[in-house]
Amino acid sequence: MRPALTTVQVFALLAVALSTLVFAASFAVDTTSARPEPVAIDNTVQRGVTAADEQIARNRSISVPRAQVFYSQYRYVVSYVGIGQAVTALTEPGHEQQFGYPLAVYVSDYSDRPVRCGDDGSLRTATPPDWVEANQAHYVVDGSARVPSGPAVVPFADRDDAAAFTETCGGRIIDWETLKTYSFDLKQAAAVREQVGPRRSDADATVQAARQHRNRPVSVEVGTDAPTVQAAVDAAPPNTTVVVPAGTYNEQVMIDKPLTLSGPGATLDGGGNGTVVTVTADRVGVTGFEITGIGNTTVGDPTQSNDSAWDATVTTAYGNSDAAVTGWNASGLYVANLSVETPASGVVLRRTPGAVVENVTVNGTADWQDGFMGVIGMHGPIVVQDSVFNGGRDGVYLHRADGTAVRNNTFRDNRFGVHLMYTSRSLVADNVARGQEYAGVVVMTNPVANAIVGNDVRHSGSGVMLAGSRSYIAHNVVVDTTQAMSTNADRSLYEHNVLYGNDIGVRASTVVPSNIVTENDFIANDRHAISGPGPLRVYTHDGRGNYWSGAYDLTGGTGPVLAQSYSPTDSVDRRLHQTDAAVVLRAAPSVRGLRALRGTTPGFRRGSIVDRAPLADPANPETVRRLRNETSMEGAA
């Protein structure tokens, strides 16, 4: 039974609802003013660029064509990095309903500029482009000009300038109306959903290829054929196995040829000075060891790096961490069946495409601030699976590791379970995270097309926190966190997640509300959802909304969805699952008037979420039933 509100509390809620109605009426945008002029990019909300692509463009002096759009019912100017991004946004279904019609669209103008495409096709110009109205520009498409994200569409105010550009960079000239009929392959979130199965299959194939390193013929046995592990490695022919019998070996090992180092029951003790096993060759296997005595250096010296890349500082600082096993420029590395005690990192992989880490236990520091990463993956796709990471800073940290799969792992008491930086098109699936200080899964630096599916995060600071765009977040379970999920990512699909018993279920964070949020279950959260600045967010798709515990009190509904809309950010609705008085207050005539107004005009209210077709029953009934049973058992205990 919900606690009843006092009369004073009821009137206070009603006052809040009425004040919101007054605010909503004052949020209209004046669309009769003079045509807006282009503004500085820093004064816009930017969309369509990953942080990695932005850094690459800046570091290589690549010019990226942009568009900026003024909408009739959206108070921010939106800039799109890449003309294709703008065209896709402006022509996608429901876009005008959400933002209003475009008052003005401007694109970069490369006329009267010494613009060229270099030997690598990168678009460059000595001076920044100006602006031209989109429908007045001439567009060069299908040429050799490129930007970090792919082929470039290059606009010109003067058709002769566009023609001159095609003479050196190829392509053909089209107008704005023709350009809007183009289909730009931007890997929308629904397409990422279809890629989950193939990504699993790709990871399976990578694992099977790496596992071949387990079955090489034995060539050298330590103690019988060579006195030390390093001596055995030096003596072994390529593509064979060095066997290390049970016992403790106080040494560090360097592997510079394709072979397998196998030591079930053996311990490698590095003496507390640096990395224990270093691999610099392709197709190496390291299996079956307990590894201790790892050094305590967690940060390299960036000043000692000769790397001029934009991310050299991060690569040097993180990639030089002491570890049980480090692989450098070594494809196909297989690391399996290890038990690691480390004050620094467990496994460090730099430019090791196709590397696999499986069945590894990494015990880091009790205080995450004293340690580093369980696995670091940099500059290449890897697979991390079926492993356990206890303590330390991050369980798995990825940096520019596009296409990585992190699956079926367990993370306990880290800062972050899985931490993606500058990493796109990856799969984070079916992991379990408990007691994370900040988050079970966190994705930063605006990557694209990541799939975060089937993870279970509990008793942590946050659950799943994403940035970037065009990602797929589904079938995750988040329980007992401060904030279960955020929608920092845009143009992403959030579906079939169960957010149970959290302080906040979801935080709608993006200023541009372009996500699809549907068929999720919000149950027993203190606040089902909160919303930041921006226009109205509609959490309904194809006639299906989400299940909100408490919204079942909305009467009159039959069938799979309720008859009335529900707003988890509304001052009354958000209390429906907490107090019976909120159900009575919702029926007040003034509140009904406010509800009729909500959602009828795009961009009408800031900081609001509305579900126009809330579900009558949970979308994920088996998961919800299991969680309710677990909660009941915990309460009984």
Short summary:
This protein is an alpha/beta fold. A hairpin with a 2-residue loop joins strand 9 (146-147) and strand 10 (150-151). The relative contact order is 0.09.
Overview of this protein structure:
The structure is a single chain. This protein is α/β, with parallel strands linked by helices. The chain has a domain at 41-185. It is 20% helix and 30% strand. It is built from 12 helices and 50 strands. Residues 614-637 are annotated as: Disordered. It holds the Pfam family NosD.
What are the low-pLDDT stretches, counting only 5+ consecutive residues below 50? 1-32, 599-606
Approximate strand percentage: 25-35%
Global mean pLDDT? 88
Helix residue percentage:
10-25%
Distance between the termini: 21 Å
Total number of helices: 12
- Count the E strands: 50
Task: Find the structural class using helix and strand composition.
Answer: alpha/beta
Overall geometry = flat
Determine Rg (CA atoms, Å): 28 Å
Q: Mind summarizing the main beta sheet?
A: 24 strands, parallel
